Amino acid sequence: MSEQPFSLRRIAVKVYSPSLLYGLGLGAVTPIIALSALERGADLATAALIVTLVGVGSLISNVPAAMLTTKIGERLSMVVASGWAALGMGLGILPSNLAVFSVGVTMIGMAGAVFNLARQSYLAEAVPLEFRARAMSTLGGVMRIGVFIGPFAATLAMKWLGIAGAFWVAMAAMAIAAVVCLRIPDLESRAAVEVGQTRSGGSMVSIAKDQWRILLGIGLGVVCISAVRATRQVVLPLWGENIGLDAATISLIYGVSGAIDMLIFYPAGKVMDKRGRVWVAVPCMAVMAVALFLLPLTHSVPTMMAVAMLLGFGNGIGSGIVMTLGADYSPISGRAKFLGLWRLMSDTGAMAGPVVLAAFVAVATLGTGAVAVGAVSLTGAGIFAYFIPRTYRKRMGAP
């Protein structure tokens, strides 16, 4: 009997629906974490610090996430992560003190590290190479759709339940995601491993030593793109306020940028599959660099809207690029551990980007900070342009 050809549509509901639900839950609570902290007695500085605990939780959990995924598998890891996130949301619902709430926020970040690594590892093994970029970009796009829907669902719930309504929505989404993950089929490759092969691939240190050229080459490009992506979420609202726009207008500009970002993920994945990763990685970084260089020149709603749309387009065409490159360069033996190191670099960039912006704002101006982050983006484009063509074909076994 001939094997049925692979189809993304056939696996879409089971594989992508947990990510949609997870993104919805994350989107529901992200805008109100600071407000919840203020309700519990935090001042503005402390509230801002508590928001960063999501990133801290993810950063410190990447290595444990890799170990857990290697031990129990991708499917069960996603179940555990969704359940852990639901517990974290539950701490947000309780009328607790600031310390307990901070633990809940950190738990959300920890769960994200496990969930994101496990879903990436699952797709890397489940999807053939010729469909990989489309699968990964669709995964990133579905997650963004969930994050986009989340605040609207939270707004409806908060009309009846107050600020805790957002956490109720998120907890329900995470709980449903855990149930859906239970129905995802186990990977066939895992059954083969149980016969006698090994997926562990040695220790994290040995994998880092074996893959150091990739981690210090393309990995630095990943640090750059993650730094720019994290910073764009901060610099747009700050620049809008800097030129005197009201909160509603800033929100509209940010929303339009996010909508463009969200809508172009599949074409980007198709280009990566048909033409190669470099055809998306370099333009993504170059376009965001141009947008950040232009941002300090905007002083009105139309000009800032145009630059925000360009920034959203640049980020959108790179949907899934970090996950795709991670899957491409990950060894079959020890894949989860390599992806743990990959995500550690990505999260390091995401944490460092806003810090770079803040440092330039402190010593110069916000416009200077935007240009500096644009330079980081241009550097990332150069790294990708240099390393990807020299390593990708060799890694994939092409002549």
TrEMBL record:
It is a multi-pass membrane protein. The chain crosses the membrane at residues 20-38, 44-64, 76-94, 100-118, 139-157, 163-182, 214-231, 243-266, 278-298, 304-329, 341-363, 369-388. The keyword Signal does not apply. Residues 11-392 form the Major facilitator superfamily (MFS) profile domain. The keyword Protein biosynthesis does not apply. It holds the Pfam family MFS_1. It is found in: Cell membrane. Keywords: Cell membrane, Membrane, Transmembrane, Transmembrane helix, Transport. Its main location: membrane. It comes from the Bacteria. This is MFS transporter. It comes from Paeniglutamicibacter terrestris.
